[in-house]
Protein: Redox-sensing transcriptional repressor Rex
Amino acid sequence: MVVNKQALSQATIKRIPVYYRTVKALQQSGVKRVRSDRLSKLVHIAPATIRRDFSNFGDLGRSGYGYSVDLLAEVFGELLEVHSEEQMLLVGCGNLGRALLTNNFRRNPDLSIVMGFDTDPSLIGTTIAGIPIYNLATLSEKIRPGMHTAIVCVPSSAQAAVISELEANGITAILTFAPKPVPAQPETTIRYIDLTSELQALLFVDHQNKLTQERKAPLKQS
Structure:
């Protein structure tokens, strides 16, 4: 399958991991095919949006039959370049970092945080959910060959120095929860997660939906 990834919208790209995780769960449950209306209930995405997204990837199903779960898992796995478990490191093992280490992508067997780093003496040398926590100063010693992905849960003031250190050790894919963009090498891909902006966007959409419903509501007879 050849897909022009550059032609995909950002919205579709964001939904691909959701589709992949869901069809992998269906596959593991022995489900062989799924219709867009059932998939819609599982991923909370409109059936029309699912069908439009899937149309980007060729003939994945047919009317009245639905989609082959095995084929969907294969297609989305290829799109996400899932060939083996992606082992990641995490920097910043405070409250947010601890929550991520504890959860550790348990719904997705292809993703796994295998080590954490911090500068807090009370955390260094401990384990969280079985994952060892090392001194950030020992990053170059502890990082495993082939690792190129990191999650950063540090304050904005420390983000630039941490990302620079990660880049110096071969990390090229970084997810950070400090929303302020920082300088990075051209080959580095950084995704910034701004929880405040996400929440504000959510509240805005919720408010707009309520206004729409109010406009559609029938007028009460006097």
Summary: The domain at 10-80 is CATH 1.10.10.10 (Arc Repressor Mutant, subunit A). The radius of gyration is 21 Å. The chain has eight helices and ten strands.
